[in-house]
Amino acid sequence: MIGRRGIADPSFCPSQSYFGMNFVLPWYDSSVTERIAISLDTNLLRAIERERKRLRISRSEFLRLTAKSYFDAAERKRLDDQYERAYREMPESRKEIAVAEAASADAFSDQW
Predict the structure, then answer these.
(1) pLDDT tens digit string along 44-92?
(2) Strand-pair partners of 24
């Protein structure tokens, strides 16, 4: 569910786990499905068939998982890019770096 500010409320996000991959897509509603027809080249279809048989899932489920994985990776990249832009605009100051280094040295001084 999307909140008042257009931000997804994590308590309403469906989460699915398949074969060690976790998917959380706030806009995805698995109860609504539609049939489509797509064209794939022969080699790609053979690769899909091999993998989906190995995983023991249907072709539709394999393509759903693949699409979800794509959108999940795209969202992670978008968030990483956003973090990098923010860091470039406002990097740590020398004082903040010194404090972090001192805290790190203090935390590990007993171990060495």
Answers:
(1) 999 999 999 999 999 999 999 999 999 999 999 999 999 999 888 888 8
(2) 15
Write phi, then psi, for 15 (nearest 5 degrees).
-130, 130
Beta-bridge mates of residue 16: 23
CA-wise closest residue to 58 among 18, 21, 29, 31:
18
Which region, left, alpha or beta, applies to residue 20 given φ > 0 means left and ψ of -120 to 50 means alpha?
left
Q: Residue 86, exposed/middle/buried by CB under 10 A (0-12, 13-18, 19+)?
A: exposed
pTM: 0.55
SS (H, E, C) 60-82: HHHHHHHHHHHHHHHHHHHHHHH
For helices 59-89 and 42-55, the axis angle rounded to 10 degrees is 100
Q: Are 104 and 97 in contact (CB under 8 A)?
A: no
